[in-house]
Amino acid sequence: EVQLVESGGGLVQPGGSLRLSCAASGFTFSSYAMSWVRQAPGKGLEWVSAISSSGGTTYYADSVKGRFTISRDNSKNTLYLQVNRLRAEDTAVYYCAKLAVGFWYFDLWGRGTLVTVSS
Amino acid sequence: EIVLTQSPGTLSLSPGERATLSCRASQSVSSSDLAWYQQKPGQAPRLLMYGASTRATGTPDRFSGSGSGTDFTLTISRLEPEDFAVYYCQQYGTSPLTFGGGTKVEIK
Predict the structure, then answer these.
(1) What confidence score (pLDDT) does residue A49 get?
(2) How high is the pLDDT of residue B30?
(3) For the segment A55-95, what is each residue's pLDDT rounded down to a tens digit?
(4) Beta bridge partners of B22
(5) Backbone angles phi and psi of A111, in degrees to 5
(6) Spatial CA neighbour of A83 closest among A116, A108, A40
(7) Interface contact flag, A59 B95, Cβ < 8 Å
(8) Which of B46, B7, B83, B102 lies closest to A42 in space, CA to CA?
(9) Beta bridge partners of B69
(10) Which of B4, B94, B97, B98 to substitute to test the interface with A, most A CBs within 10 Å?
(11) B43–A111 C-beta distance less than 8 A
């Protein structure tokens, strides 16, 4: 079955860190660019970061640049997001999403992992 | 960055009715690089349309997309019970990728 499964979310204090993971299965992970998209409670979708299929090129939204780091391990079919210096406004469900070949729309989504930043 | 404005915010309709959702961009979206997603409560978004008018695999043909430049439309010809959800547009022609604020289609 083609799927993405996120993990690693939780409650963290402001200024803290987490590492989110996304396990991919059912497709050739190493052939696709991947991305993280987040959704604050009751709000819309916000693109966070993306990474090329090889991992050699990364992209970030201005809101997270310098605090978040995207990476991937193609041998483990896993995508990561290291989130540092967390703020209350980073509270959201973080979705892992697969990018279509050659285009930057999201054709497969995981179920998400909730990150709550609160003291 | 390209700002996408979706309207209306909420659409109250009955099953069987036609739904017309609008997505307006603050500047031209290159090559009609616009996608639509459907999200139901507690679920992840699901790709419905891409390239403004191409249905994704599994999208019923009652869904259609149109538009170019700055004005795009998602139409649901006859609402089925499973179509009541929130719909988002997304442009992918220009970095950063951006989403509209969503239109909620609710049962009247």
Answers:
(1) 98
(2) 83
(3) 999 999 999 999 999 999 999 999 999 999 999 999 999 99
(4) B7, B73
(5) -85, -10
(6) A116
(7) yes
(8) B102
(9) B29
(10) B97
(11) yes
